[in-house]
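FORM 7B: Structural annotation worksheet

SECTION A. Query
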Amino acid sequence: MPSLDGVNATPELTDIQVNYDDLIPIYDLSERTPKATTIRNLLKSFGYNGVAVVDALRLYKSTNPASGEPPIDDQYFTSTDGTETGYTLSYNSNCWAARFDLTGTAWHAHADHGGGSRRAHLIGPRAVLFAKHYAPTGPMTFTNLQGQRFTYSLNTGTTTAGGVTYQSTMDLGYDGMIGILNTSGSDVDPSLRRYEIATSVETDEYVLSTRSRKSSTDQTPYRQRIQFNQVYASPSSNQDFLSLKLSGTSGISSNPFYSYMDDATGGDSGDAAFVVGDDNVPKILTTFTSATQPFLKGPFYGQTARLANIDTFLAAWGTTRGG
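SECTION B. Predicted structure
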């Protein structure tokens, strides 16, 4: 195991600007020789999956609120949104999760159509994923990093391919659905992220969760929250559920980092979850997070059969996943 013996260390890391591929000196005790390694590899040796976790830890160290709750300004946009749709939102560059492009998430639904919940996530130029029990009942509004809004609704027609008639939405099982957007024959605006569907998740990996129904202190109006959860079990072969480490959950130990970034309450079961790697690009994993149990409830989109069903459905509508 590498050691930092003999290397001058800076006690305060919160204010240091480093790149994850910067080299740092170490001393290899097994070979008894000085070496160099990257910040990225050193952190991986400590068991962190995805460099985004480091930023979360750094923020915790720099603020460390006694209550253990995220600060009230922990939101993706500086404005709140429930019913108002007539102005440009301000992107919050100071949010600790600002590095993640979540513009493919429909944060802003009118109060009559979900009360401010995001409800849908772009996976292609005309396709969205969402939780079946929170299916959009009206327009979905996406906001790019410049604060511009783009509103789309689900298609209401049908299409036929290979002798099969397809509705504009399809049940994926485990409370997941896919839908075709009515984009008047064109694609959604290119400034919006189209999420890749995740194909795997590892034990002890961190997953990024999104919330917009509740603020950090359970106040209204709605705020857009982002948080981390940590996976501690692989999906069951017959359930497709991912178990999570949540603070305040009976039988699961917690520490200040979990208390700061995790919250087993205050969300809704339509919350989505993403895996985020070293490239900081979120890949969608599920659209259904249990608000009362330590699970990311399906669908676990990495299943080959489910991906094939998605692609067949999209092909029938003349579109695809991705860009």
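SECTION C. Observations
Residues 1-7, 247-254 have pLDDT under 50 and may be disordered. The two ends are 42 Å apart (CA to CA).

SECTION D. Sign-off
Analyst initials: ____
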